[in-house]
Structures are given as C-alpha cells and as structure tokens.
Amino acid sequence: MSDEMSGEGLAQDQTKSLASVFFVFAGFVLSVTAFLIGTKAGQSVPLKEGLAALFVGNMILATYAGMIGLIGMKTRRSSTVILRPVFGLHGQILVSALITFINVSFVSVYASMIGSQLASFYPVLSPYFGLLAFVFVVGAVNWFGFKGLSLLGRIGVPALAVFVVMGLFKVHSKVGFDALAQAVPTEPLPWIVVLSFVTASWMTGGTLSSDMTRFARKPSYVFIVTFGAFLCVTLLEAVGLICSLGAGEGNLVSILNRLGLDIMALFIYLILGLTSGQAIVYSFSLAVMNITKVLNRGKESTVLNARFWVTAGCLFAAAVGVIMTKFGLLNSFKNFLTMIGIVVPPVGGLIMAHFLIVERDFERPFEAMPAVRVTAFIAWACGIAGAYFLKFGVIPLNGFFVAVIAYTVLRFAVTGRPIAQRAAEKMGNSKVG
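RE: above sequence
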C-alpha cells in the first residue's frame, strides 16, 4: 500500500501541483449543499446582507481549513493521523470515527437528492436506481486514487462556472437585477444567524482538509487552495441566493422550475455530488483505514486496505441514502448542519492549539503520544458547551475559541511545558551523560 493512500506520510516526490490540489479541494467543497445554503440565505436576508454573510462565512471557512491544512502540509499526514497526538493514539479513534461518519453522510444526502430528482424527470425509474448508480460512480472514481479525484475536479469545477453564468443570466432575464435589490425575504432571520449557518456548512470538510492539502508543495499553496476554493463556493451560494430572492421562495425544486433551470439542475446535481462525494469517500477510506491500523497495533492489513474502505464507505452512504429517501429525512438537513456547527469546530480548535500554540514542533510531532489524552476530551467538551450555550456572535466560532483556550490552559497546567520540548531536553541530557 502506498503512503498516498495510507495517509501516514508523503515523500517530497509524492506531492502534487498547485492546480491538482486545488481542483480536488474545490471539488470537495463545491457541493449541492452550497446551493441549498444560498437559497436559505435568500429566504432570510436582503441581497446585500446575504452576499455579505456568504462572503464572510466562506472566508472564515477558508481560514479555518487553511490553518488545519497547513498542519497537514507540514506533517504530510492525513486528518486522522494528525488527531493522534491531540487526543492520544487510541483516544483519536472515537473522534475520527464520529467526524468521518458525519462527513460521509453528506454523500447519502447527495445520493438521495439525485435519485429523487432523476425519478421526477423519468417516473419509470425508481429513486433508488439513481441513488445507487450515483454511489457506484463515486466509489469507482476513488479506486483510481488522487489522480481520479483530480481528473473529476478538473471537469466539474469549470462546469459549475458555466452554471453560475447561466443562473445569473436566467435571473436577469426573468426578474431583473434591479428588482433583486428591492426583494423582501420570505422568512427573515437576523444576519448573524445566517452567518452562523453559512460558517457551519463546511466545518467538517475544513477539519478534514489535511487529507488533500498534505499533497501541497508549499505553505502558500495551502491558502491559495482553500481561499480560492471557498471563493468558488461563495459564487455558487450567491447564485442560490439570487435565484431564491428572484423567485420569491426557498424551495429548491420550485425555484429551478420557475427559472427554467430544472433540466440543467439535474446535471449540476450530478457534478456537485460527484466532485464533493468522491473526495468525502476518499477521506473516509483514509480515516477508517488508519483507525484499523491503530487497532491492529501498527500493522497494515492487506485485506482492509484503502479500496476495501472505499467500498465500505459507499455501502454505508447508500444505506443511509435509502433510509433518507424512504422516510424523507432530507427535511432535517438544517438541524444536521446545526449539530455539526456545535460538535466539529472545537476539534479544529484543538488541532490548532496543539500544533501551533502548545507544542509548536513539526520535527517530532508524533513522539511521546499518550494512549488517551484526557485534557483534550475535557477541552472538546468545553468547546461543545461553549457553542451550545453561548448564543451570541457566530456559534461555530464560539465553540472553536472556547476549545482553543481550554486546551491551552489545561495542557500548560498539567505538563508545564510542551512534551516535544521536554523530550528534546531529555535526549540532550542523555547525550551529555
């Protein structure tokens, strides 16, 4: 098994070009959810306030993903692996599994939406046919590794640019941009609530950014990738916002029908779902494979390899997608994002606090790891509580900052000095002796 697929570490000659990493990451964050978030913003705030919320929220996400991605680039490790020194070699299993299964559930959402949309155009087809076909294609792309991800991203991202232009043209011809400025939201919400919703949307993906940015050759490439990708997300969400305001409603299917974009929407659903879904399943396979390696005491399995877990991830996504389609659980998508905004950002806070504040060491980041770091779990709980109980400002950021402060204070209170620093001093003393 190659290091590329194991997530354990990369050699310099395994890094990728800036364009390759960008198209994979952009394909990851450009998803059906972006259009849904845009339409929700269009229901909630006027045009200028909505565009501001989308831009600010995505720049927060770009910074968040960039900082974690920088850690992945410096360590050349995947997201699951960089969680080990934070939560402990065995403690990270719970955290990795939770985030991984939350993330792969987005593929279930995409599959359910695409299957239902396809069935609406061709009633002879069952919605489960399109659902299963979509998941199969996502799995097939992942069998080709990073090259497959990059190729699909190079196709999908330009196609989305065409959709953005067409969407704006349709709105201009049917509604007019002047009317948009005067449009009144159908379900008004405070601007800060919309900003929190936008920020929560890709916190999970941002936490897993190392799976892709570890291939970047320079630190600057990481931020070019994350800011460039989330600017693309802002544009896509802006189309959803404009379409929602122009149509005067928030129902995605009705909006597309009224604007004459329904046929193209199916194609865009496929592109958005595939570019994001294939990257999500890739991250899932890396995470679960590394969890099994820890449980197997560091030994890599020739059977439970990356391709095995790609298949397992697709089967899980398909099963959840079938349940969503059968019981209409897509209606709970907003609550799903709210839960993500409470649980996931503190994990990113702990990663940054560990590597950038407490340890500040990228030469020996995986030495002297405990089995379970209790202080990390306490800080995580503090972050979750902060996001849940602190109702002012941007909710996901509340949990993030509480976790950073709690982890930093607890670690220095317990150890006094970073573990890496004490290990280096011990090594120096032994040489002198």
